[in-house]
From TrEMBL:
This is YybH family protein. InterPro entries: DUF4440 (IPR027843), NTF2-like_dom_sf (IPR032710). Pfam families: DUF4440. Residues 17-119 form the DUF4440 domain.
């Protein structure tokens, strides 16, 4: 990409996060993976790595069926170049009535596919310390 502009990509990412949350709020599982490249992987906490459109849609459809109604992604850092852009930030999951049930952090690697910036690798984990057994 000759005219790489990180500020423009930050705006694309912000717009994508808003659309992602709107898709999730509607419970439209077919829309979740459209934000990812066709060869994307997600790395959810406490689950194995999931690869591809079908697995990503199934994971987020399952989260919706479990009661998650909103995913709020707040970007704090965006860096990179024309091949890959790396974003880090905070994630919050909410159930009905806007009740927060999960706060954590994420790293997303973005890459272009069909002239659109999409999520290529997505990993997140919770901020709450792990429970220990006595």
């Amino acid at each position: 990409m000759e005219n790489f502009n990180l500020d423009a990509i930050r705006q694309i990412i912000e717009t994508d996060h808003q659309a992602y949350d709107e898709n999730f709020t509607k419970g439209d599982a077919s829309q979740f993976a459209k934000h990812y490249t066709t060869d994307a992987c997600i790395f959810p906490a406490n689950y194995p790595k999931m690869f591809g459109t079908e697995a990503i849609n199934a994971f987020f459809d399952g989260a919706y069926k479990m009661g998650i109604r909103n995913i709020k992604l707040t970007s704090s850092e965006v860096m990179g170049g024309p091949e890959f852009v790396i974003e880090s930030g905070a994630v919050e999951l909410l159930i009905d009535k806007g009740i927060s049930v999960y706060k954590g952090k994420f790293i997303i690697i973005w890459k272009q596919q069909n002239d659109q910036w999409k999520m290529y690798r997505d990993i997140w984990n919770i901020d709450t310390p792990a429970q220990t057994q006595n």
